[in-house]
């Protein structure tokens, strides 16, 4: 069994920091009450972020969304994997993500740290998986109209 941790994206960490900072540094009427509420919320986010991990064995991909929640996906049921930056809520702590389509209508979005190795491991088990890459963009592609 190979284990992968989630990729932590600066964009999500900065967003969460800005949200929490706005509560801490912007004066509020009931600042003491708000601070008491903020501590459990911060601990909850840490709990969720630190609990995200993935594992691949010879039959399944297991997505651990937190310390208590996990989803098992049979590798044989995976139809395609698409690179995405979809910001929907998912067990992924980065916007550099993979969307896994499995069964007939199911999908899940993840962000493993070693994406290429993760894909290689899945393709070794199920070579029928279609991998859809994002087009590579460079700094000049926006300038060329």
The count of DSSP E runs of length 2 or more, i.e. the number of strands, is 8
Q: In which range does the helix fraction lie? A: 25-40%
CA-based gyration radius: 19 Å
Looking at the overall shape, the CATH architecture is Roll
What is the H/E string? Answer: EHHEEEEEEHE
| Total separate domains | 1
Approximately what portion of the residues adopt beta-strand conformation?
Answer: 25-35%
Main β-sheet description: 4 strands, antiparallel
CATH domain class? Mainly Beta
Name given to the CATH homologous superfamily: Pleckstrin-homology domain (PH domain)/Phosphotyrosine-binding domain (PTB)
| Distance between the ends | 48 Å
Predict the CATH topology.
Answer: PH-domain like
Shape descriptor reads: elongated
Number of helices: 3
Mean pLDDT: 85
- Secondary structure class reads alpha+beta
Poorly predicted runs are: none
Q: In what order do the strands lie side by side in the largest sheet?
A: 1-2-3-4
Domain Uncharacterized protein YyaB-like PH: 52-126
Pfam families: bPH_4
Keywords: Membrane, Transmembrane, Transmembrane helix
Transmembrane segments: 12-28, 34-52
